[in-house]
Write a structure and sequence with these properties.
InterPro entries: Cro/C1-type_HTH, Lambda_DNA-bd_dom_sf
GO molecular function: DNA binding
Protein name: Helix-turn-helix transcriptional regulator
Domain HTH cro/C1-type: 10-61
Oligomer: single chain
Pfam families: HTH_3
Length: 235
């Protein structure tokens, strides 16, 4: 029995609800629950849904040490910490995503955001998750992973969202370095796309995308800032 399945059952018992009944209420199929019984694990979307229902942090559901339930104020950081440490076989960040979990778990701490921010384009304004750990800068390959993501066509909604959110992180750091919205009003950047990135106001599906590699290359030359600075804010 996995730690998750044990704790899921315990929480269901406390609420007086059967595990399979709750799963159905949460939109999770009976076949998926059977996989959990047989030592399978939920993906991140499912485990987040369950954690929100029981009002517990994700790490409570996956840690084997019966960690006490963390107070509300600490949940956001707890979720970020847990997602960063999950083994690859446990979760897929988004169903149908072409971006591997391994790559996602490298990107999240590198750009200092939460998994929720990276995968929800309703989060328009980025703010750093915590004080930046410069040890992440040692992994120089992550820059190329990010540029590769921005350089591909978004064939799925989940891929598009990651591109958009990475772009919003870039715009945040550009503003911090003195290049705000007005400074980037140039014919070299699609201004309808920029409007969408800054405000979330949709200007037609053809403009609801993130910065591409050509945009990033222009911004590097235009601002004199390195890719590292644009992704992390760190010189």
């Amino acid at each position: 029995m996995t730690v998750f399945w044990r704790k899921y059952n315990e929480l269901c018992d406390e609420r007086g609800i059967k595990p399979r009944t709750l799963a159905t209420e949460l939109g999770i199929s009976a076949a998926t629950v059977t996989k959990w019984v047989n030592d399978g694990m939920p993906n991140l979307e499912m485990i987040t849904r369950i954690a929100e229902y029981f009002d517990v942090p994700i790490d409570y559901l996956i840690n084997g040490d019966d960690t006490p339930i963390i107070p509300e104020a600490n949940k956001k950081r707890s979720v970020f910490k847990s997602v960063s440490s999950l083994s690859q076989r446990w979760v897929s960040l988004r169903r149908g995503s072409e971006i591997s979990l391994e790559t996602q778990l490298k990107i999240i701490p590198y750009v200092n955001c939460t998994v929720q921010f990276l995968n929800n384009d309703k989060y328009i304004e980025y703010s750093p998750e915590a004080k930046y750990d410069t040890d992440h800068l040692k992994d120089t390959e992550t820059i190329f992973d990010i540029l590769g993501i921005l350089d591909h066509c978004a064939d799925t909604e989940s891929y598009r969202i990651v591109q958009v959110q990475l772009s919003r992180i870039v715009l945040y750091h550009l503003k911090e370095k003195g290049f705000d919205r007005e400074a980037l009003r140039t014919e070299h950047l699609d201004q309808e796309k920029m409007e969408y990135l800054y405000t979330g106001k949709e200007g037609g599906k053809s403009h609801n995308y993130g910065l591409n590699f050509s945009d990033m290359d222009f911004l590097r030359e235009f601002t004199g800032l390195s890719y590292q600075v644009m992704f992390t804010g760190v010189e």
